[in-house]
Amino acid sequence: MHDNEVFRKEIANSMLTESIAVQAGPGSGKTTLLIERLKYIIKNRNNSLSGIACITYTNTAKDEIIERLQTEGMQFPPELFIGTIHSFLLEHVINPYSYLAHKEKKPYKLATVGYARGHKQKIGELLNRQVHFINESICKSFESLGRDEEGNPYCYRNKISTEVARAWKIYMRDNGYIDQQDVIYLSYLILNKYKHIRKAFSLRFPYILVDEYQDVTFFQEQIFSLLERTSFFCVGDFNQSIFSFTGAKPEVFQAKWNNECYKKYTLTNNFRSTEYIVQFANLKTEIVQGGIGSNGMSEQKVVFIKEVGSPGEAIELFHHLRKSIECEKQYKPFMILARQNKYIEALNDLMKDKEVSVNQFLNKLRELHYRCYRILENTLLAILYKRRNEFDKAVAKMAEAFSYLFFNNPPNYISLADIGYDAFMWRKLQIFTLQYLDSLVLTETSVADLFLKVKQFVSEQSKTLYGKAIGKKIVILNYKWSGQKKASQTTLLSQLIEQLEFRENLSGNEGHTLSIHSAKGQEAESVLVMAESEAQLMEWLGENEESEEARIGYVAFSRARKLLCVWAPKIQEVEYIHLESHVEFRSMIQTETTDITSIL
């Protein structure tokens, strides 16, 4: 069936008892479809108490769904869960039932990020190394240990042996902790062993929607397969399966796609990119998309940068080329993508501009009252990131501001139980506050005004949304600005944010230079994809079914909306004749377009 509005409405409004698998490529509007299906379930479920779980791969995706539902005025039923699989299982399986797997019949606690760093002595014993040889990379490997399909501890980064991984898991368990990966595995063991818990869990959540299904791991899939009374709505893309280091395999979604119990749909429209970018990406996949969005008619071809030997020169030319690209306010202006974090760090060091000193108001506040400084600085950064369409960063800064506001502690060291909140309520209040802050007139709002406005808004929202009075928890917002009273009334938010923008270097490359993996799910008006070698670029240009590296290239190329530039050292035009319909070549000395056919 042709991909159009009628087709998508048919998918969203399918019978509630039907399980559905949707193959949705880059820019296909899958989040919109997921939200439409979620809204349909909320409005049409037979029992108003039936639980609905919308599982996202990242907290950023969760926040986007929450914000869009809020923008549409959608009421959030208390039975609705939106969040990652880890937070879902932690709340509904691990916290209430993990005592069944504990030798002392206590629930397991989730190890916070950085747990391994606090246990370097034990890691040193397991690896037979001195503590000073335990670096950050090793700690990250211990914190990302997964399980193979037999349930054995396994390091997908190939840095830790199975024996050491098993010993570490036992050590954590003996101390009453489990890590993120074992939230999945232990949940599976509990649901698989206890039929009554499994049945009750499935009855409680008869509707589960899962985004980014190609990133689902073996034991996540095993959990889903146990829920016989649950109907699923699964959205994924084989071509974007690039997280094998977490244990994810494209075969998991492939099996779901081949399951006769599922209705299957493919979205073929691309609303994001130009037709040239779409067709360039189509060369790598059997699923053919068409560019039908506002950018679809653009005559801008994909640009391969030639005769440029250094990364710095390539970035300079990219910025020159993107000057002709009209940037819409709601989109990120550009991204520079590369494969390895070390390479990205080198690029950031190369491009880093001189820091501009921060407005003296903040410097003095930091000396006089550090807590107020952290609240104010993070709130200002949240506003700044939101207005630059860096929503994930904006929410992160809002979370930090809230943590200092309510608890005078960083986010990892707070207890929401102290204010009667759960994680979903906490995040929802942050997003609502962020939206409120974004509506302020920065040139008319002083620092003193900001604190009073935030106190009033947060207090009222907590009462309205949750019936909870939290005024006593945020009395710090009554701060008298000792030593800065006049300055607090005359210093405008616009002045401070302008200074912070320089300091954060948001107008330069830092913050826009990302690994391809971290850019997944994002988009920008202009994108520069940088390969460390031409051999790496050749891998990225391969067919997606053949290797994960080819799929990494697909993810990178499909982030661009209007301009896609590709660079690798020593690119030779003659090697890319097969791309002539989609590609043009530009060099540092050129001002006019050179078509690939001109070299023949």
Question: Could you describe the 3D structure shown?
Answer:
Helices cover about 45% and strands about 15% of the residues. With about 600 residues, it is of the alpha/beta class. It has 24 helices and 19 strands. The model is unreliable at about 355-360 and about 590-600 (pLDDT under 50). β11, α12 and β12 (about 290) form a beta-alpha-beta unit. The two termini are about 40 Å apart. The strands form five sheets. A seven-stranded mixed sheet has the order 15-14-16-17-13-18-19. Strands 3-2-8-9-1-10 form a six-stranded parallel sheet, with helices on both faces. It is globular, with a radius of gyration of 25 Å.
Describe what is shown at a glance.
The protein is of the alpha/beta class and 600 residues long. Helix content is 45%, strand content 13%. The protein has 24 helices and 19 strands.
Oligomer state of the chains in this structure:
single chain
- Please state the CA-atom Rg, rounded to the nearest Å: 25 Å
Largest sheet, strands/sense/barrel: 7 strands, mixed
Secondary structure: number of strands: 19
Beta-strand fraction estimate: 5-15%
Family: Belongs to the helicase family. UvrD subfamily.
Pfam families: UvrD-helicase, UvrD_C
Binding site for ATP: 24-31
EC number: 5.6.2.4
Write the layout of secondary structure elements.
Layout: H1 5-12, E1 19-24, H2 30-44, E2 52-56, H3 59-71, E3 80-84, H4 85-97, E4 109-110, H5 120-127, H6 136-143, E5 146-147, E6 153-154, H7 162-174, E7 177-178, H8 180-193, H9 195-204, E8 207-210, H10 218-226, E9 231-236, H11 250-258, E10 262-267, E11 269-270, H12 275-282, E12 290-291, E13 302-305, H13 311-322, E14 332-338, H14 341-351, H15 360-368, H16 370-387, H17 391-406, H18 423-438, H19 447-466, H20 485-490, H21 493-504, E15 513-515, H22 516-519, E16 524-530, H23 534-540, H24 548-557, E17 560-567, E18 583-586, E19 594-595
Parallel strand pairs: 1-9, 1-10, 2-3, 2-8, 4-7, 8-9, 11-12, 13-17, 13-18, 14-15, 14-16, 16-17
Antiparallel strand pairs: 5-6, 18-19
Binding site for ATP: 24-31
Catalytic activity: ATP + H2O = ADP + phosphate + H(+); Couples ATP hydrolysis with the unwinding of duplex DNA by translocating in the 3'-5' direction
Organism: Lysinibacillus pakistanensis
